[in-house]
Design a protein that fits this description.
50% helix, binds adenosine monophosphate, binds magnesium ion
């Protein structure tokens, strides 16, 4: 199965999120049945990252979006926890600081974009500027409505500079969100994550769905596609995201760079004694 194809939003098409099954798990019956495959993907991801870092020609930007409690933090932890921190970063987008708010909306995204050899994960992203900003009228429609095109241009610019962009919408239902909030209330180690704002935002769920459907319709491009990931089952969410990242990195034509020195010469010069010892042994 090709996960990239299965979950990608075709450029120009409109997804009705209500019609997407959030509990889909493909051919996998349960987490246990998928564990071996997930461990293999983790190792593949680590190997591919090593190659990306060594090759130093391109970079990967992963944007994670989704409703509160859809699992953005969990995805960062599980999927990208397998990466070497030298060469990987996660950046969370919060309410803009004064300095950020004083710049154009893409400024703060651009400064955190990956450099060659790097993988960067955006936990939320520049898309908040057509999501929360739109839902709460933080700027007039005449301002946010122009942003889809600006975002597409921005992402094209990054792509032309060697960055591959993958954007994931973690799909859960309104009912599942409430269930997850309740679970947080019952778990002392996660109560800190709860805010009243989560419940106020929940009241806007249908408005967010509409705003997300517009995002998917207007900004899924051949060069920076959106993927709608069924996220009710956390293990499947992790598996699907990981598969798409692995499939994408595998498609890169990456090579370990050739040595910058004459290896035989170095061997003769600095390891001659060892070689003698070996041959006499
Ligand atoms: P969390 O992801 O739970 O740490 O919360 C971060 C909060 O920052 C969320 O409520 C986001 O909607 C909010 N946020 C992120 N970007 C923006 C933005 N550009 N304008 C306003 N609020 C934002
Ligand atoms: Mg939150």
């Amino acid at each position: 199965m090709n996960y990239s194809k299965l979950f990608a939003v075709k450029p120009g098409s409109r997804v009705q999120l209500a019609g997407v099954k959030s509990g889909f798990t493909g051919k996998h019956e349960n987490k246990t049945a998928a564990t071996a495959e997930m461990q293999r993907d983790d190792r593949r991801l680590a190997d591919l990252q090593y190659l990306l870092y060594a090759d130093h020609q391109r970079s990967l930007l992963v944007c994670l979006q989704g409703m509160d409690a859809s699992g953005k933090d969990g995805t960062v932890r599980h999927v990208f926890g397998a990466l070497d921190p030298q060469g990987a970063r996660a950046h969370s987008f919060k309410v803009p600081s004064q300095e950020e708010a004083d710049h154009d909306f893409l400024w703060r995204a651009h400064v955190h974009a990956p450099a060659k050899g790097e993988i960067v994960i955006f936990n939320r992203s520049h898309y908040e500027d057509v999501l929360i900003v739109r839902v709460h009228d933080l700027v007039p429609e005449s301002v946010w409505s122009k942003r889809y095109e600006l975002i597409n241009e921005f992402e094209r610019n990054l792509t032309l500079a060697g960055t591959t962009i993958l954007k994931f919408y973690l799909h859960i239902t309104e009912k599942e969100q409430l269930r997850r909030f309740e679970k947080r209330l019952d778990d002392p180690t996660r109560q800190w994550k709860i805010s009243e704002a989560d419940y106020t935002e929940r009241g806007y769920f249908p408005e967010y769905v509409k705003a997300y459907e517009d995002v998917l319709a207007k900004t899924s491009t051949a060069y920076a596609p959106w993927f709608v990931i069924p996220s009710k089952r956390k293990w499947f969410r992790n598996l699907a995201v990981s598969k798409i990242v692995v499939e994408t990195l595998k498609s890169f034509d990456m090579k370990v760079p050739p040595p910058t020195v004459d290896v035989d010469e170095i061997r003769r010069k600095f390891h001659a004694d060892e070689a003698k010892e070996k041959s006499s042994a």
